[in-house]
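Following up on my earlier thread - several people asked me to post the actual chain instead of describing it. Fair enough. Here it is, all 280 residues.
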Amino acid sequence: MIKIEKYLFFVLLAVALFVANSSLAAIERLPATNTKSGRPVVSIPAHAIEVSKNVFSLGESVDPESGRKVEGFLIVHPRAASAKPDGTPGNGNAGKGSKCYTFLASSAKWKSSESWVVNPSNNSGISDASIFSILDDSISKWESAAGVNILGFGSITSDTLEANLSFMDGLNEVYFAPLDEGTIGITIVWGVFGGPPSGRELLEWDQVYSTEYDWSLDGSVLTMDFDNITTHELGHSVGLGDLYDTSCSSQTMYGYADYSETNKRTLESGDVEGIRKLYR
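Reply from S.P.:
Thanks for posting it. Predicted structure:
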């Protein structure tokens, strides 16, 4: 009888440990939830592979319209030192002949414009109209520099938006949500980035702006200026990459930003040269 009781004890112990470990594993797989908004944190997915600084491949998918094989990239915009140190547009070496632009992939650009949608609800009290207007105006800056219509027309929605980090879903979405600590915003771009240059094309974009920061329209202290960050992020949406050479720190596509910075609202010489070369 004693042997049977010991056997049953160890069986029950093993079952209890299995259940506990299974529950723990399930908890670990759940997305982190932001205590302020109650929404899951939009994090870099486990399957993503960092292919260059702050750029992660999301793997392959299929364009739901054409059936073409596509690849997705997630670009992280971290908070760091001010991108344009003295606040004067055009400072640095960008105006002295240096190549202060880079592409997500050579010749990878939009060949037809598509509509986009924004849920402007934010944690800083900025009006829906202001969020939409800044996005629309920032798109116009890039399109004016390129000389072509690139991203098309937008609209406002109250629907909950969710950028897909695993496959292309045919929607171009912009919204606010919790992001990983230290991340101001992310842009996801799907398209054809390899093969013959003539076949490369951008096909989808999404942007998420962090609710972990306070936002403003005037570069107030300890806030992120929405126009400043949006103009940079839209540079990725149209096909440009980040710059990390400090000689290009005056450019809008320089890869860092900080509180109260407003200098990225304008396109500088390298930004303009890059977008013109991509869409010529």
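The helical segments are 2-29, 128-146, 226-237, 269-279. That should answer part of your original question.
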